[in-house]
Write a structure and sequence with these properties.
Length: 283
């Protein structure tokens, strides 16, 4: 198994308890949730390392000008600090690395996926008092500054380049072939950001059959979020069976079939057939 290596079971259980607690708090802390994801992925990330990452975000925020002005001034200040001075940005190669989805590694490497770089932008800007939020454009996450009628977008993956309306339209058209809709520009909820990060981790693992361990913890963290797709239970069951845990995998398949039966009896029966096949592997 290639690094990063997961933590031992006792540490993992504690991290998951804290993740679920934070996700259900009145105001979930995005950086804390991302660092808990990182600690579940990387057993080398201990409490001191998590604290150091928060201190790094604080230190970066302390280097921003005091209230530089309107939304565009904030976007430019973040670009100059993070993109130009510190070199945070992304490249095509970053999509091939699990570390690109782990906040503590992104802070060290100054490289990552669009959504993780956006988390850095948001957390640094938020600490400095900026009106900042994530914008989940289809296929490409960016950050927004200011209210809707004055909104300025920036692309941390491109070093914080300030986007024009035409730039955003091109990003959406390139990802979906469809036009930009106003609903795509609304602020992203922190828990939706975390779920999207975990979806990226699952997508990374899906192309690497030897890393079902990564796929499994990403699914199981997703299931701890207050709102998540029901189909994740089916995905977890399949992973358990794939990893040789036939008893728990079959039980999870049966539980999912009970949920599906209310809307699609034929699909439920197919899932129950998979559960029977999983149990048969024990013979």
């Amino acid at each position: 198994m290639r690094p990063p290596y997961p933590p031992p079971p006792e540490r993992s259980a504690e991290l998951r308890r804290r993740f679920a607690e934070e996700a259900r708090s009145e105001r979930p802390d995005l950086s804390a949730l991302c660092l808990l994801v990182g600690a579940e992925a990387d057993g080398a990330l201990d409490e001191a390392g998590m604290d150091a990452a928060q201190v790094e975000l604080d230190a970066l925020a302390g280097q921003l000008p005091f209230r530089p002005g309107g939304p565009r001034s904030w976007a430019v200040a973040l670009r100059e600090l993070l993109g130009e001075r510190y070199g945070f940005r992304g490249s095509a190669a970053d999509y091939q690395r699990l570390e690109s989805s782990l906040l503590h590694q992104v802070l060290v490497r100054r490289r990552g996926l669009p959504i993780l770089l956006s988390v850095v932008w948001m957390e640094v800007a938020r600490r400095a008092g900026a009106p900042v939020y994530g914008v989940a454009l289809p296929g490409h996450f960016v950050v927004g500054f200011g209210p809707t009628d004055q909104q300025v977008l920036a692309d941390p993956f491109d070093g914080g380049r300030v986007l024009t309306g035409g730039d955003a339209e091109m990003l959406v058209a390139g990802a979906t072939g469809a036009p930009l809709q106003p609903s795509m520009l609304t602020p992203a909820d922190p828990l939706d950001v975390v779920l999207r990060i975990l979806n990226n981790v699952r997508a990374w693992a899906a192309t690497r059959p030897e890393r079902t361990d990564v796929a499994l913890w990403a699914v199981e963290l997703s299931l701890l979020l207050p709102s998540h797709p029901a189909r994740l239970r089916f995905e977890r069951a399949q992973l358990l069976v794939q990893r040789g845990d036939f008893v728990e995998g079959a039980a999870e398949l049966e539980a999912y079939a009970d949920v599906v039966a209310g809307v699609d009896l034929a699909a439920a029966e197919r899932v129950r057939g998979q559960a029977r096949a999983a149990r048969a592997m024990l013979n």
